[in-house]
């Protein structure tokens, strides 16, 4: 039989057990929050990383364009040298014709041509025609050379302006990247945020052979290397830096920019993709990876991460291409 004392004891015990369970549940909740980042914060970090990679690829594109401008400027400068030499030669030719004409009589010779003996008139006219033809040829050459010289000088001036614009753009984007990196670091500070939903992927085996397979082996050797914006060396890579370095290792040059790489490669269907092919992501093509086979890619994901293996569909795929 249950007594009032026993009943009170059981009620008190049940309240203690309930309170203990609540404390345990709260502790588990706190522990879970510590182990997994706040979804809202995760979204902020993901958005910031996405935006940063877009700017990094814009920086890489501007750097590629600047290199092209510098190379073209050198070509124009080289072209100016023979043009200036031709100008001098043509000018000297005209000067010699004029000097010869006046030294041999000038207008008085022209007058004598029509007052001399009729038998010599044909010869004198031939001489005059030759001098006129030679002068016309030298003058035409001089004008053509001068036009070409002025055109190249204009081109050089435009290239210098473009170079200054690109250098300014690069400086602005560098400042944006560095500021965004600092903000991203603060967001990540103390937060257990990872790529691939916290999972680590590996390849069952590496492809054999040369070409694309060798490019995959290069990329695989870079796994664990830190992301470095603008990087394309073993010290650090960004996405397009890794793919360009991997293919450079087998003698194939690619620009250091995802969208420019897409323009440079032969497009292939997803079903025909082979190890070494490039996989491009997002509608604006600001990310690129190297296909490793088995439905996996190797890529440099984003700031604060390292080169790693991920599923090919871990991001929205735009297309595939073969260098």
The number of distinct structural domains comes to 2
| Tally of strands | 8
Helical fraction equals 55-70%
| Shape summary | globular
Q: How far apart, in Å, are the first and last alpha carbons? A: 87 Å
**How is the CATH topology of the largest domain named?**
Helix Hairpins
Count of helical segments?
7
Using the CA coordinates, give the radius of gyration: 38 Å
The CATH class of the largest domain: Mainly Alpha
Spatial order of strands in the largest sheet:
3-8-4-5-6-7
- Oligomeric state of the chains in view: single chain
Rounded mean pLDDT score: 73
**Main sheet properties:** 6 strands, antiparallel
Stretches where pLDDT falls below 50 for ≥5 residues? 1-37, 105-110, 190-195
Strand content: 5-15%
Structural class, by secondary structure, is: alpha+beta
Order of helices and strands: HHHHHEEHHEEEEEE
CATH architecture of the largest domain: Orthogonal Bundle
